[in-house]
Amino acid sequence: MSCHPLIPEVTFVVAVKLIIILAAALFVFSPGQRPRIDAASMQEHLIGASTASPQPRSILP
Hints:
Layout: H1 7-27, H2 39-47
């Protein structure tokens, strides 16, 4: 069985692409680059900064 002449080139290109993907995963998407998400940060993001009012407001005059 003869070896196809493109097999070494295709293997090289696939290896280079895998190295690039792994490097991006380590340097761009590493756990140190991800934001910390917890309940307090989600509450602040969704509701906004809590403004504690001393007295509850009434709708009655």
